[in-house]
Every structure is written in C-alpha cells, then in structure tokens.
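Data availability (excerpt). The following record was deposited with the supplementary files.
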Amino acid sequence: MQTQEILETIKMIDEECLDVRTITMGISLLDCADTDIDKACEKVYNKICTKAKDLVKVGEQIEKEYGIPIINKRISVTPISMLVGVSGGDPVKYALTLERAAQTVGVNFIGGFSALVQKGFSAGDKELIAAIPQALAQTEHICASVNVGSTKAGINMDAVAMMGKCIRECAEVTKDENCIAAAKLVVFCNAVEDNPFMAGAFHGVGEPDVEIHVGVSGPGVVRAALAKAPKDAPMNEIADLIKRTAFKITRMGQMVGVIASERLGVPFGIVDLSLAPTPAVGDSVAHILEEMGLEMCGAYGTTACLAMLNDAVKKGGVMASSTVGGLSGAFIPVSEDAGMIDATREGVLCLEKLEAMTAVCSVGLDMIVIPGETTAEVLSGIIADEAAIGMVNSKTTAVRLIPAIGKQAGEELEFGGLLGSGPIMPINQTKNDVMIHRGGRIPAPLQSLKN
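Predicted structure:
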C-alpha cells in the first residue's frame, strides 16, 4: 500500500501539477522598532538576513532530495505600520529596506507592508496607506495589504474610501508596467495572521518570533481525480473523493513543513491547503468545477459546486494534519486561472457571479482586471460589498482589483508568469459617491457577540 501511495504522489507531481506553492517564513519585527527610522530599517534588514539566510537553500535541498517542486520561497513580516507608528518618517524607507533584504536572501516576495485598521487608525496607519503606491512602484518583491473590517469590529468606511483611491493610484503610477502595483495590494476583511500566500501575507502579533508555514496547491490533482469519476456519481461521492485527494496533498505539505522546520531551526506554523491555480494547463479551479458537470465556470450551479469543493478540501486537510491553518480552501484569482480566463472571455463569468462565489470560497475578488476609467468611489463600493460578505459570514474576504489605465472592457492586460493574463471585465459604473463619502463605520453584526 505504501508503494502505491508513493507512486500516486509521483504521478501527481509529474502529470497533475501538484506542488508546494510556497514555504513562507514569518518573522516578527517588533524588536526592530526604533524612534530613529534609519536605525529601525537597519535592524529590520539585519534580522531578516539573519533569520532567513538559509530559507532558499533549504527549500532547494528539499526539492532536490524529495523531488517535490517548491515554487516560491517567501517571507512575511509584522505589519510595517506598527514600526512607522514608533519611528515616524517616510514609510517607503521600510519598503526599500525590505526590497534590499529580499534581494539579499533571494526570496520571491516579502509580505507585510500592511496596516490593520478595522476599528480605526492608530499611529502610522494612515502614513503607511498613503505610501503604498510609491512603495509598490519602487520595489519588485514587496506586497501590501490593509485589513478594513472584521466580524468583531465592523467595517471602517473611512479606510474603505482611502483604499479605493489607493488602488487607483497604484494602477496609475505603474500604468507603463501593466499596472502591476495594484496586483501586489490586497484589501481584507477578517485577515488571518498566518497566511503564507501573497499578496496578503503578514506576520501577526500573536505569532512567535520566527516560524515556517507551507502553502500547498493541487487543483490539477483534484481535477484529475474527478475526471475518473462516473458522470452519474452523486455529489456526496464527489465530495468524498475530493476529501481523500485533499488528505494526500496535505500529508505532503505537512512533511515538507516538518523537514523545513527542523533544518531551519524554527517552529513549524501551519500548512495551508488552498487550491491556488496557475495559468498552466490542467492547474485550474474552474476546471474542477467543470468536472463536476458545468459546461463552463459561471453557469448556474457554480456557487454550489465551489461551496462543496471548499468544504471538502478543509475536511480532508484537517484529517491529514493537526496544524492546518491560513486560508485553506479554493482561490479564484481570475487572471491566474486558465478556466476563469476562458469563462471571462466568453462572458459567462461576470463580477456579480464572482461576488456570489466569494461567499463560499477561500478569499474573494482576486486578480480581477477592470476598466481604467473606474472611479475610486466605485472601487471602494466593491471593497465595501466584499467586506460585508466577510463580516456577516465570519470568513476572510479580500479584494485585489487592477484598474487597467487607458484600457476598456474586452481588452486584456498581460502580466506573465504566475500572475497570468487578465481579460478586462465590464463592471457596473453607477455612481455611489454619497455613500462612500459618508465615512464612519458600519457597526459589527449581531453575530460578533459570541463571548
């Protein structure tokens, strides 16, 4: 039986796009805070370079020894707004320091140019948000995120209004680079502290000084398993098949995490089982839904299929590991998923359908390219709607929108690599300025009173 399992895993890797999408080292920078921003930056650089000096090397060793592809090696850090609150000064200095550290240790990304403002702004938060466009425009490896709401706190509508402007500015300052800065910025509701995936990773204040997380991805494995199932198999049997497949995927991630933890000498945090697609053929969440019996992702029934997929993935993962965390479900980033791209081009998948899907998927409206004329207020309205879904349903939701400056619906924005190609979606441009400009806070829902 053990031999059979090994052969199955080899086939998953060779033929079905199974990989460890990332090993992410979380590093606390709280002990780097200093009233002198230059001293704080030097401490940040030294700590990252000390703690993560072997991260890439260990990842490559595990790849070579076990034949398991580890696509990305990443770092998440304490939300930088906290350091800005102590030091003052230009937050872009921190971004440039993180960029220098990323290049020194050789990681793909550092996440954590972030602020947590779900209930209001503390020292450093507004300064960091204002600096995000320039920070992302001047760096290659830095990702930013802002948490604007939670089930416990409600939604900070002042922050929502700020983030609509921030996304537009990110797109405008990098319009000659396919508006890439906007693709490195996520706006959250109910952000989690141990997420290893970019662009939303940051190292929460409740986490240890240093730890290692693993993000596993296997949409192709799940799709291949479903392709072998009879077309008349009932949905509960399909769910069981997904659970068994997710179990196998998680066991591999658990093994990589334990080995990396031992070799790096840091605690093992979590394994995140999120099915993260790529533009590669056979590595699509949309194609999993289509194997369940939909002609194309976006057809009626899509939300139900996605809900079952997300639940089955979590159940299978929890059985395989006692350290499942992060987001662990199914991502639906449009530009990164070949099936989503096709469905968008055909007009079958629209923003409203995607919004419905976000109520049951892992995160939210992810990597969606929209017309460049979209106003900051409309962007803020989309953020508010998505945050409301997360707040009321006690789940993580997020928005990663890319206004394609100078382009219209029906055209495309080409990012290349993992970010793929984004068909520009038509969206409802009806004005909502009065509502957004009210500001204030949407109060926490009744279900927040669970103490």
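Summary of structural features: The radius of gyration is 21 Å.
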